[in-house]
TrEMBL record:
SMART domains: BRCT. This is BRCT domain-containing protein. GO terms for cellular component: Cul8-RING ubiquitin ligase complex; nucleus. It holds the Pfam family RTT107_BRCT_5. Residues 539-564, 572-600 have a biased composition (Basic and acidic residues). Residues 485-499 have a biased composition (Polar residues). It comes from the Eukaryota. Residues 601-612 have a biased composition (Acidic residues). Residues 621-630 have a biased composition (Basic residues). GO terms for biological process: DNA double-strand break attachment to nuclear envelope; double-strand break repair. It comes from Aaosphaeria arxii CBS 175.79. Residues 479-630 are annotated as: Disordered.
């Protein structure tokens, strides 16, 4: 305890606080010490009911102390009662400074992944230190301006830093790491391993050959016994006659709890009896009524019982979760692990069209991802082929990863899959978090840390309004709804699983007898006074509409199309808004001629069980008709013909593919580009390096209307206004691009700051498309080497378009902001150090060079402090 002495008359710092201690993972001695400290500082310790695992009189509690968010009242305390939940260290920290510390810094919330860290910075630029401090605090950690024993992570650029020298001399137990670690943690949204970033010999500064293979990781604790939603074999060790079993052990997680089994579990009598005995031995009981239950166990997110239990805030989990409670003899939140919560029977909308494979995940991690893919409704493939739509990789160094790049398959990390499932909605592939792979890091180490999004599940499966039953959906499909454009819904006989009482009535009516009154089909338009096709059906229509009245919000859901996020450069929507230009393609298949690499070459890496599946798929392939060879790979930019209409988009793309047109978003491999005019989007600018034929949108109009391909020359794009404004002709730029062969910026290293309009990654991609390299500039000159470019003509090179290259000029793309001044000064130091000429430029410089396809310089593109200060 720190010094808690107070001035006379001042109340104790915990005066008026009523604090409860959750005993999970806190030793009894520690619990007693916490209770004594709280009382010594004027607080009251509220009781915790160990028999029920709940907090009595939660409304009267002011603070909750817990090492984890994994206790029954956590979400209710935060969401409904706004009670702070803090770690035990909050007590000592508050006592040390004699005032209440910010509860957020001590939160056990797993989303605040830096909450255990105390970070200190060495001699970094002041702007970097401020950014790191802000990020650490936002992620629940603490930032220390001085080096002390409490520091867990020291961020420096070199071991010669005075604070690093002090840490080594004093043998302080802290990680001494590069700033790159912090940047990469924020990009992933998880705390990743410090190993590749640790000084004095960080792996991330080595080449792949020097560093060797990326180490495999042990299965994450977060997926242990949470990789299979139906672990039917885990308790089958009890599959002997019950009279020979040992007496059931008491499971305190069930003490005082009533458990109900859902009918969709399909438990046999023997297994159900084993589980029942374990529950009763632990002081619980099994019930058949959901109203009486504290725990409801089922496989799928459907049925009246599931909805009732969920809306009543009961604990709802699956069989895997129940086994976890039995095995570990402690309570855990079923929403904490994705595979502990019931699955959506129909998967996640949109995933049914996907074929997903994985790379570099092994053992239990591989099993977990395979089951998660299936739970989303997608097809999991052990082999990786050209018709796969997605590859989920743990890192970038694998045969499958290289093949996916070559074939144009979407490459993402597992966070995209987990968060799509957790949020009940496909997450956009354009979010950099899902395509980022930290160097020398195996992302399997952070597998399973995503939790079910409670609000998303509630909105989708048990909202406050009743969802229409499947019987009512049949009425919608048959009759239509005046004033609604809801799409047809597939009828289903599984009426008893509906969340609506109407479904039960429909079932009763259906089974009451063999005689039924046929209902003539009716087709209602938006006109209210249209005459129905059958006499007397007006009353039936009114009754149907009455039943559907409460379902109107649900029907409206079917009218919404998921929009993808993207971004454009200048003058358009910002990155946070939807952009058709950056919409990610979702092809159901891939071009069979894209590569000659064999399936065996790709799959030898990781899966021995793929042979049978591959053979079966080869047999299926023989039955399928061959696809039309790809004639044109077409990239579309700023054409909004499919915006908000995913169904039309899919049909049109399929039709175009049959005619030999493959719509792609891969701007590195395109021969035709289609746009309404010349635009400065990332895809348009980057794709120019391929030297494509550029056509108007009328080209696609013709193909879709006439069902045949016209000569591209009849639809060439001309935009004289743009050409006049920007000083180059598009047709000449295309000719130069063909000469350059994507090598215009070869041997160039161009630096980009974070503040540039459109996002730094946009310009880095444009640079890469033209054969150059780019670095993010954060003022860390001693980590970067700069070298002059060779300007002598090289046989077969593109020197005719590089005649204005001065060779010794080094470029920094920045913004006209005063906050950028410190970075400019450091950049000039870098250039001086390497005997080069610094040139700090606007984004316009790169856009011109990439679009005109030749190196050129205009002084109006240069940035300096005087110009910014005068503006």
């Amino acid at each position: 305890m720190g010094d808690t002495a107070m001035l006379d008359g001042d109340p104790p710092i915990f005066h008026g606080l009523r604090i409860v201690i959750i005993p999970t993972d806190i030793p009894e001695e520690r619990q007693q010490q916490l209770a004594d400290d709280i009382k010594a500082m004027g607080g009251t310790v509220a009781p915790f009911n160990t028999s029920t695992g709940r907090i009595d009189d939660l409304a009267d509690v002011t603070h909750i102390i817990s090492t984890t968010s994994d206790f029954p009242d956590y979400h209710r305390a935060l969401t409904y009662l706004e009670k702070p939940v803090v770690k035990p260290t909050w007590v000592e920290a508050s006592a040390k400074v004699n005032k209440l510390k910010n509860p957020r810094v001590y939160s056990p919330d797993p989303a605040l992944f830096m909450s255990e860290l105390v970070v200190c910075c060495g001699n970094l630029p002041e702007s970097d230190q401020e950014a790191i401090a802000g990020g650490v605090l936002a992620m629940g950690g603490q930032f220390s301006p001085i080096m002390s024993k409490s520091v867990t992570h020291l961020i420096v650029l070199e071991m010669e830093d005075p604070r690093a020298v002090l840490a080594v001399s004093k043998r302080l137990h802290c990680h001494i790491i590069l700033p790159h670690w912090f940047d990469d943690c924020l990009k992933v949204g998880r705390k990743i391993s410090e190993r590749p970033y640790t000084l004095p010999d960080p792996e991330i500064l080595k080449t792949q050959a020097e560093a060797g293979a990326i180490p495999a990781v042990r299965a994450s604790q977060s997926i242990r016994q949470a990789s299979n939603p139906e672990p039917v074999d885990e308790l089958m060790q009890h599959n002997t006659s019950l009279e020979h079993l040992e007496p059931p052990r008491a499971i305190r997680a069930f003490n005082g709890k009533r458990v109900m089994f859902g009918s969709d579990l399909g438990l046999n009598d023997r297994l159900e009896q084993v589980v029942t005995d374990l529950i009763t031995a632990g002081g619980g009981e099994v019930t058949k009524k959901v109203e009486e239950a504290d725990i409801y166990v089922c496989n799928y997110r459907e049925g009246n019982d599931y909805v009732s239990a969920s809306q009543a805030n009961k604990d709802v989990g699956n069989l895997s979760w129940l086994y976890y409670l039995i095995t570990h003899n402690t309570w855990t939140n079923p929403m904490r692990r994705l595979m502990h919560y019931p699955r959506p029977r129909e998967g996640i909308p949109g995933f049914g069209e996907y074929r997903i494979s994985i790379s570099s995940y092994t053992g239990e991690a591989r099993v977990y991802l395979e089951n998660l893919v299936k739970a989303t409704g997608a097809e999991f493939t052990k082999t990786f082929k050209q018709d796969n739509t997605h590859l989920i990789a743990a890192h970038q160094h694998s045969e499958k990863y290289e093949a996916a790049k070559e074939w144009g398959v979407n490459i993402i990390n597992h966070l995209w899959l987990e968060e799509s499932y957790a949020k009940c909605k496909e997450q956009t592939l354009t979010d950099q978090k899902y395509s980022f792979f930290p160097p020398r890091t195996n992302l399997g180490e952070v597998l399973g840390q995503t939790e079910i999004n409670r609000k998303a599940v509630e909105d989708a499966f048990f909202p406050k309004f009743r969802k229409p039953s499947k019987a009512v959906k049949q009425i919608i499909q048959q009759d239509g709804v005046p004033g609604s454009s809801a799409p047809n819904m597939k009828p289903s006989s599984d009426v008893n699983k509906s969340a609506s009482p109407v479904g039960e009535k429909a079932k009763t009516a259906k089974t009451r007898g063999n005689v039924s009154t046929p209902v003539a089909p009716r087709h209602f338009e938006e006109k209210e006074n249209q005459t129905p096709g059958t006499t007397g059906s007006r009353g039936a229509k009114d009754r149907a509409l009455s039943k559907l009245h409460d379902a109107a919000p649900d029907i409206a859901r079917f009218e919404k199309e998921m929009k993808r996020k993207g971004g454009v450069i200048h003058g358009g929507r910002r990155e946070k808004d939807t952009s058709d230009d950056d919409r990610q393609a979702k092809p159901k298949g891939r071009d069979s001629n894209a590569s000659k690499r064999s399936i065996e070459e790709v799959d030898a890496e990781e899966d021995e069980d793929s042979t049978d599946e591959a053979a079966g798929n080869e047999m299926q392939k023989k039955k399928k008709p061959k696809k039309t060879p790809i004639i044109h790979r077409v990239l579309i930019s700023k054409d909004e013909r499919w915006q908000g209409d995913a169904n039309k988009e899919a049909k049109d793309k399929a039709k175009l593919r049959e005619l030999g047109i493959f719509i792609t978003d891969d701007y590195s491999n395109v021969d035709v580009m289609c746009a309404p005019k010349i635009v400065r989007t990332k895809k348009f600018v980057a794709a120019l390096a391929c030297g494509p034929t550029i056509v108007r949108t009328s080209y696609l109009d013709f193909v879709l209307t006439k069902n045949k391909l016209p000569p591209v020359e009849k639809h060439l794009l001309h935009d004289e206004e743009f050409e006049k404004e920007h000083g180059f002709r598009l047709d000449e730029a295309i000719e130069r691009a063909k000469q350059n062969k994507k090598r215009l910026l070869r041997d160039w290293t161009i630096y980009v700051t974070d503040a540039v309009t459109g996002g730094a990654q946009t310009y880095r991609d444009i640079i890469a498309a033209n054969g150059g390299k780019s670095n993010m500039w954060k003022g860390r000159a001693n980590q970067i080497n700069a070298s002059k470019r060779t300007i002598q003509p090289v046989p077969g090179d593109v020197s005719q378009n590089q005649e204005e290259d001065e060779g010794d000029v080094i470029y920094l793309i920045s913004e006209a902001k005063k906050s950028e001044f410190p970075l400019w000064e450091k950049f000039r130091d870098l250039a001086k150090k390497h005997d080069m000429v610094p040139r700090i430029v606007k984004t316009e410089w790169l856009l011109f060079v990439a679009m005109a396809q030749y190196v050129h310089w205009d002084p109006e593109w240069e940035l300096n402090e005087d110009m910014v200060s005068a503006s």
